[in-house]
Give the backbone structure.
Amino acid sequence: MAQLRQVLSDAGFQQVRTWIQSGNAVLRSDLSAKEVELRVHQLIKEHIGPDLAIVVRTGHELRQMLDNNPFLGDEYPIARVFFVSFQESPAEEKVQALLAQDFGQEKLRIDGMSAYMFIPQAFSDSKLSNNFLERKLGVAATTRNFNTITKMIAWAEEEQDVATPHKISS
């Protein structure tokens, strides 16, 4: 993550912060979210190596995602809710086909560029996963837990008065 911070800073992004080894960064940029996605993808591939899909959200978009969480209340402990950001909107027919499946106690909701998964057991034992959603929907995605999302929102809101920050997930 130190290398990612350095590469992004050297490329002119401002106030770059990374969150542990989570693949998340918050930064300031005058570029659009799509431009940041493309630029960061290029920088990582060129300077670090992997050819990763990059998903960018503004602090406001992350806050909206958290506010739209359909899994609330005692029956859905927040530690078992996972937040998914898609790089682009999945095709509606693929969404409907996926939502028609029965995942047992696991729950899935998809709302445009976001999805929400309630996974009551260990995430590693779940049928639902980031890779599963990418494969079924044909779009790049990134999945984060509540703690990571709230940390990214807090950092983004610290910088909100200065410029629009972006979250990067790989």
Summary: Strands lie at 14-19, 24-28, 55-58, 81-86, 107-111, 114-118, 141-145, 165-169. The chain has two domains: 2-58+149-169, 63-147. Confidence is low (pLDDT under 50) at residues 161-167. Residues 33-47 form the longest helix (15 residues).
